TrEMBL record:
Residues 10-358 form the Enoyl reductase (ER) domain. InterPro entries: ADH-like_C, ADH-like_N, ER, GroES-like_sf, NAD(P)-bd_dom_sf, Zn_alcohol_dh. This is Zinc-binding dehydrogenase. GO terms for molecular function: metal ion binding; oxidoreductase activity. The lineage of its organism: Bacteria, Bacillati, Actinomycetota, Actinomycetes, Micrococcales. PANTHER family: L-THREONINE 3-DEHYDROGENASE. Its cofactor is Zn(2+). It comes from Arthrobacter mobilis.
Length: 360
């Protein structure tokens, strides 16, 4: 069969539509008809050259939901052991395929694979989401999704949800008496807020913009929302001190994707506080760091690049739970056709929508 796909040329930072022949599915793999793909912040950064460029044109899009079109020889279940058949609804995670044998893959950190790189060249069948049909090898994590949960619920947070799930794993326990502060209210920030809410902290503060995303933050459980467009850094620091009796936040989660957030965030931490970096995936800007502050306050600073593949399945199950509790499918506000991919990515990149998706 023929499939229309998006191809990105890093040399010219240009997008084009190409026609690919979709062959038989690989042994142990499958072919999926893509029904919806989410736009990630990384996609917007890619379009302006903020991420490393590949030598050849690539296919991309890593937040996808679809339907099994054809099963490869030997493929009978998803990664949870549920039986798979043609017509079943699924979601999958293209960047988490990995090589399977480097040390990071053996430790379950497939996103840090040393050999298999994402995204893939558009010259060969691949699992990218910005195309009509995706070819998934046996190594691509695939999960069956229930028919009563809409596609939008699985792309509302997209890759941000497994990122947030892994972030909570990295952070460790959040206690009921603690204050959690989240910087940023894009998908990673909102997903982190939803998960923090499930931990029932004493206070959950969010710093971000625009107003409609702050409204969602409150809907998901934030107890205080500070708009960065109407407050200064000094005013935000004062407000956090007021809310915490001068201590600061016990946990700060960076989900803003801006280096300046790091400088502000560590100043908002209480002594022995924990700081998780979840949003800084790309870019070349740097900030000054005061190591004396980190040492004298005994601060703990952790990075979180997606993390363990085992957390992907947890995120899929959690998306269903969050849909039933918060109706997260409503986060999807803008839908575009595949031919409108450039407009879709740019619209998402400048924050015009809460969540933008492509419907191939």
């Amino acid at each position: 069969m023929q499939s229309t796909a998006v191809s990105f040329d890093g040399a010219s930072l240009s997008l084009s539509l190409i026609t690919e022949k979709v062959d038989v599915p690989p042994v142990g793999g499958l072919i999926a008809r893509v029904t919806m793909a989410g736009i990630c912040g990384t996609d917007a950064h890619r379009l302006v050259g903020d991420v490393p460029k590949e030598d050849a044109p690539i296919s991309f899009g890593h937040e996808a939901v679809g339907v099994v079109a054809e099963l490869g020889v030997g493929r009978v279940t998803d990664w949870h052991g549920q039986n798979l058949a043609v017509g079943d609804r699924i979601t999958w995670f293209p960047p988490a395929a990995g090589c399977g044998h480097c040390q990071n893959c053996l430790d379950d950190f497939f996103l840090l694979c040393e050999e298999e790189t994402w995204p893939y060249p558009s010259s060969r069948p691949n699992p990218a989401g910005f195309q009509q049909y995706a070819t998934l090898s046996a190594r691509v994590p695939v999960y069956k999704v229930p028919n009563d949960i809409p596609d939008e619920a699985y792309v509302a947070f997209g890759c941000a949800l497994p990122t947030a799930v892994n972030g909570m794993d990295v952070l460790g326990q959040i206690l009921p008496a603690q204050t959690v502060l989240v910087q940023g209210c894009g998908p990673v920030g909102l997903a982190s807020i939803a998960l923090a809410t499930l931990a029932s902290p004493a206070q959950l503060i969010v710093i971000g913009a625009p107003a409609k995303r702050l409204e969602w933050a409150t809907r998901l459980g934030a107890t205080t929302a500070l708009d960065i467009t109407t407050t200064t850094q000094a005013e935000r620091a004062e407000r956090v001190r007021e809310l915490t009796d001068g201590r600061g936040a016990d946990v700060v989660i960076e989900a803003a994707g801006q280096p300046a957030a790091f400088t502000e965030g560590i100043e908002l931490l209480a002594r022995r506080g924990r700081y998780l970096i979840s949003g800084l995936f790309s870019g070349s800007r740097t900030v000054e760091v005061n190591p004396v502050l980190i040492n004298n306050r005994s601060l703990h600073i952790m990075g979180n690049l997606g993390g363990k593949r085992g957390n992907l399945g947890n995120a899929v199950a959690l998306a269903s739970r969050l849909q039933r509790r918060f109706a997260i499918a409503d986060l999807v506000t803008d839908r575009f056709e595949l031919a409108e991919i450039a407009t879709a990515i740019r619209s998402s990149g400048i924050g015009l929508s809460t969540k933008t998706v492509v419907v191939p």
